[in-house]
Amino acid sequence: MYEKIWKHSKIAFGGDYNPEQWDEETWKEDMRLFKLANVDTVTLNVFSWAALQPSEDEYCFDKLDRIMEMVKENGLKVVLATSTAVHPAWMARKYPEVLRTEFSGMKRKFGGRHNSCPNSPIYRKYSTRIAEKLAQRYRNYDNIIAWHISNEYGGECFCENCEKAFRVWLKEKYQTIDELNRVWNTAFWGHTFYDWDEVVLPNLLSEHFAYERTMFQGISLDYRRFNSDSILECYKLEYDAVKSVTPDIPVTTNLMGFFKPLDYQKWAKYMDMISWDNYPANEDTPAQIAMCHELMRGIGQGKPFLLMEQTPSVTNWLPYNALKRPGVMRLWSYQAVAHGADSVMFFQMRRTVGACEKYHGALIDHAGHENTRVFREMSELGKELAGIGEETLGTRVPAEVAVMFDWDNWWSIEYSAGPSCLLKYRDEVQNYYSALFEQNVSTDIIGCDDDLSQYKVVIAPILYMVKPGVDEKIRHFVENGGTFITTFFSGYVDEHDLVTLGGYPGKLRDVLGIWVEESDALPEGTKNHFTWEGKQYEATLLCDLLHEEGAEALCAYEEDFYAGMPVLTKNAYGKGKAYYVAARSGHDFYQDFLKKVLDEAGVESRLALPQGVEGTVRVNDADCFVFLLNHTQDEKEIAIEKSCVNLITGDKFENGDVMKLAAIDVAILKEERNI
Ligand code: GLA
Ligand code: ZN
Q1: What is the CATH number of domain 401-601?
Q2: Atom of ligand 1 nearest to the CA of 47
Q3: Of 120, 295, 333, 574, whose Cβ has the fewest other Cβ atoms within 10 Å?
Q4: Using CA atoms, how far apart are residues 589 and 569, in angstroms rounded to an integer?
Q5: Could you read off the pLDDT of 263-316 as tens digits, one per residue?
Q6: What is the CA(16)–ligand 1 centre distance, in A?
Q7: Atom 10 (ligand 1): residue with closest C-alpha?
Q8: Core vs surface per residue 307-319: b (16+ CB within 10 A) or e
Q9: Which residue CA neighbors atom 4 of ligand 1 most closely?
């Protein structure tokens, strides 16, 4: 199946190329420079809608024709964008309905990006039409390896079109106004609706008093779902348009990691390949970047996974746009590959001359030639990737541990009024993920609908919302021998954000064997403590006051009026066990606790490596590729356990050898698989 989807014989190397911003003499020079840099793939046409459609009835493809011919003659593969990320100015003038209305209620004029109302019939009509025309025109180019729909979809709209569409969406979902009143609990504050037309969008003009602060979580949550679905509908219309003409060209759109407005787990079902744009800040830890890769690979459930964009060096939109230090661009590129990517792509190929991205990094700088640090580093990487060829393409990342992440849960946790403004879903997920990362445990990030049967350990930090079927699935997993871990603020609500009555953690109460009676939110800087296996750890953020209902208490709070109450419990359930961590703790606790749980559960897919060296594994039926990434400034020694060859240098090693891995360096060790 992989071979059918991926239309390149190597890790794609290149990125966004905007020749429409340059004269044709420059194009020629670009082709020379691309060859020099070993670029083999370009993403074209991302922002060209205005150029391709100068007016409502006029289309003009001449320039794009010349670009397509030129890149083909130069042996380049193409990721062809549908150009719909920004609508043309004439469209906004003629049809103001395509313009968005902001959260504040302010109607936008033409300008910026992501400026189209996703429920505008005009936008949908013309974006679909241009996508289809592009497919018709370039259908015979066999160097197109993907369709790239729009660009970094995002944002929201609160216009009248959207309000009407919201009512239709709600009617479809809830059927009767009584059901709508029930799921939103409108009896509270006398918000009862008698007619669908009384429903308005939740923004600053209605239920919100700040972007993340709402008086009715149910309405705001449904708006988030609706907005994600509305934008997904725009994507799907273009998907169908290009697929109807070119069924064999895979389709993607560039996602953005932990991007809150769009439920990417739902989106991924409609994508042939998952691609994403990785723009970490220089101070982000390797574990933070890795967690994004894990999420993005995970939503694809085995579909090809691509790094569509990263900057060769700087961005332009951070407060301090520090340079990527020598070697870091290469290190982070391989990190994407280590986590499953089959491309290393960049924004952008040539630095633009005006507007807000003129100081954004590029392969070709304003100096205009190849004698720059960034160009040299990129061409060296390009050469290495060419040397690796097809070896790692389509290989899987095998994992025995999964971390659950769910968008509805994210939205509802962070809309919650209480218990603590410090409660951030991603932070809690990161706490657990980082501890796994530092022990080089192969980990998948999965949705709550995904199959659990392949895992030994499943961790669901703050599983606040338990959607239908999820508790059964967890119960089944544990009954059959799995180890499940969850935390404070779990099991509180159903899919409508309505509390599951009878005691927390609601539907997870039996599998965890506990009842949480109360929860104490500690102000920033305040701590409680507990001692587990002879070592003292902190308890912060939220401290649950819980009672055992079959679970064993492993340790207890040491301070305050609830000193002596359990903070960590373990429940034997069927053939497995379920742990509950009743408070947030520190890095040392997550490390020690997870190590113990992983040992107990017999998790084998972990690598023992020197501190600061990240290790991942990708496999196919024949081979095993061990990626080693030295994120430190020191040389590290790696003990080799199986004979292997480093795909980057060609060096061979035998069992018992010690490999030296320089600072910021990478090795890809190919071993024959005998598992
Ligand atoms: C995003 C976009 C690009 C560009 C970069 C700049 O990833 O897709 O078009 O704007 O950001 O960092
Ligand atoms: Zn709208």
Answers
A1: 3.40.50.880
A2: 9
A3: 574
A4: 14
A5: 999 999 999 999 999 999 888 999 999 999 999 999 999 999 999 999 999 999
A6: 9
A7: 357
A8: bbbbbbbbbeeee
A9: 347
Ligand 1 atom closest to Cα of residue 309: 7
SS3 content of the chain, % helix, strand, coil (to 5): 35, 25, 45
SS3 of 358, please? coil
Question: What pLDDT sits at residue 281?
Answer: 86
279 lines ligand 1 (CB under 6 A): yes
DSSP tag of 270: G
CB of 86 closer than 6 angstroms to any ligand 1 atom: no
Domain ranges in the chain are: 12-89+121-153+231-388, 401-601, 613-672
Q: Is the CB of 400 under 6 A from ligand 1?
A: no
pLDDT lower than 70: segments of the chain? 1, 674-675
Counting atoms of ligand 1 from 1, which one is nearest the CA of 152? 8
CA angle (31 as vertex; 28, 34 as ends), nearest 5: 150
Q: Which residues form the catalytic set?
A: 152, 309
Cα 649–651–655 angle (5° rounding)?
140
Q: Which CATH architecture has domain 12-89+121-153+231-388?
A: Alpha-Beta Barrel (3.20)
When the candidates are 2.60.40.1180, 1.10.3110.10, 3.40.50.300, 3.30.70.20, the CATH number that belongs to 613-672 is 2.60.40.1180
DSSP 8-state secondary structure symbol assigned to residue 26: H
Q: Which pLDDT belongs to residue 675? A: 44
Mutate which of 309, 346, 356 to test ligand 1's pocket (most atoms within 8 Å of Cβ)? 309
Are 411 and 424 in contact by the 8 Å Cβ rule? The answer is: no
pLDDT of res. 75: 98
Q: Do the domains spanning 12-89+121-153+231-388 and 613-672 agree at the CATH topology level? A: no
pTM of the model: 0.98
Residue 571 Cα to ligand 1 midpoint, Å, equals 47
Question: With b meaning 16 or more CB within 10 Å and e meaning fewer, what string describes 192-210?
Answer: eeeeeeebebbbeebbbee
- Structure tokens given for 421: 């403004």
In one-letter notation, the amino acid at residue 607 is L
- The reported pLDDT for the residue numbered 114 is 78
Contact 524, 530 (CB under 8 A): no
